[in-house]
Amino acid sequence: MQEFTALANTLADEAGNIVRRYYRAPFDVESKADTSPVTIADREVEQRLREIIEKQRPEDGIIGEEFGTKESQNGLTWVLDPIDGTKSFVIGRPTFGTLVALCEEDKPILGIIDQAISKERWTGVKGKQTTFNGQPTKARPCQSVTQACVASTTPDMFKKTGPVYEKFERGSKMMSWGADCYAYGLLASGYCDIVVEASLSPYDFAALIPVVEGAGGKICDWNSDPLTLKSDGQVIALGDATLWDEVSELLK
């Protein structure tokens, strides 16, 4: 795992160099088929990370948001989201992040959330404590949803599930919108308690799993099943796993 972690950090470093070059600089924004935005920075980051992986680990698979899937020859697959939170990146708000995950078959065993502007990096490795900028970090205890700070990216992601988020808005201490992957890092460091989302793709959540679990939290689908590359994109993360019984009622 030391070799894999070193490579993952190299990938995050390379991504950061590119991201900083484009941040708050003029560039064109295009719309993909699903109307989500994409920039030259998204594509340049992923292309560079793929080049590094293919040179150092040619038998490993790659799943990326911008350039699709390269099948694995050895059961290991890197999952990349070059800029998770492109809208935040476009408007110059530093709550986006680069996500790098390594999966064994379809289960994430390593994940990095990297915010290149504030230079914040959460690293999760299966079976080890999550680190924030190299120092151990952990989620905080929370006794009930009424005391919880909840985060999510946008209400739009709940179109197919119904307005589940309204239950969290009404029942929690507060709810914050728009942090994308950054919210999961904040949860791992004890600044928020719940992140609830839907309609995510594997490159959106794979890296988050080792980070949240290594910080002592729980991250799963809405049925409490472990997240894998085959999961349906409904994600709930809890800083305090004892919240699950209460949260599961809100998800019904």
List keywords for this structure.
single chain, 252 residues, alpha+beta, Fructose-1,6-Bisphosphatase, Chain A, domain 1, D-Maltodextrin-Binding Protein, domain 2, 15 strands, globular
Query: Under the CATH scheme, which architecture of the largest domain would be assigned?
Result: 2-Layer Sandwich
Oligomer: single chain
| Total helical elements | 8
* Category from helices, strands and their pairing: alpha+beta
DSSP strand tally: 15
What would your notes on this structure say?
The protein has helices at 2-22, 40-56, 86-90, 164-171, 182-188, 202-205, 208-214, 244-251, and strands at 29-31, 37-39, 61-64, 68-70, 76-84, 97-104, 107-115, 120-125, 131-132, 135-136, 149-152, 174-177, 194-197, 218-220, 235-238. With 252 residues, it is α+β, with helices and mostly antiparallel strands. The protein folds into 2 domains: 2-136, Fructose-1,6-Bisphosphatase, Chain A, domain 1 (2-Layer Sandwich); 145-251, D-Maltodextrin-Binding Protein, domain 2 (3-Layer(aba) Sandwich), CATH 3.40.190. The strands form 3 sheets. The protein has an 8-stranded mixed beta sheet with strand order 4-3-5-6-7-8-9-10, sandwiched between helices. Strands 12-11-13-15-14 form a 5-stranded mixed beta sheet, with helices on both faces. Helix 1 packs antiparallel against helix 2 and helix 5 packs parallel to helix 7 (208-214). It starts with a helix and ends with a helix. The mean pLDDT is 96.
